[in-house]
Structures are given as C-alpha cells and as structure tokens.
Amino acid sequence: MNPKSKLYQPEHWRSRAEATRKKAEALTDGKPKDRLLKIAMEYDKLARRAQVWQTRKNEDDTWPEQEL
Question: Which of 3, 20, 32, 66 could anchor a disulfide with 40, C-beta 3.0 to 4.6 Å?
C-alpha cells in the first residue's frame, strides 16, 4: 500500500464520480446512462472508504508510541 497514491485520496474518487455523472447527463438512452450512474455511485463509495482510511491513519499517527 502506498498511502501517497491518488487511489487513497478521496478527491480523486469524487472527481471521477463527478466526471462520470456529467457523461451520464449527456446520454438519453436509459441503460448506458444507468450504468454510468451506478459507476459514479461506486466511485462515491470509494471516496468514502478513502476518507475513512485517511481519518483512521491520521488518528493512528497521533497516538503516542507505547513502551514495551
């Protein structure tokens, strides 16, 4: 895992979701449009997961090291 990778950045997934929704808005056919909207929803889920991961990582970084 590379925490600096854009795959762990919530904004990366949010921007992909937004771009996918824009593509869906340009379509009139139901099935392709629905597929793109579902993909955008999955990107939103990935953004939430990345946000949770960042929050947990930041919380872990603030804990003092315990002596053994």
Answer: 20
pTM of the entire structure? 0.77
DSSP label of 7: G
37 burial (CB, 10 Å; 0-12 / 13-18 / 19+) is: middle
**Phi, psi for 64 (deg, rounded to 5):** -70, 150
Give the span between the Cα atoms of 6 and 29, in whole angstroms.
32
Instruction: For residue 40, count other CB atoms closer than 10 A to its CB.
Output: 19
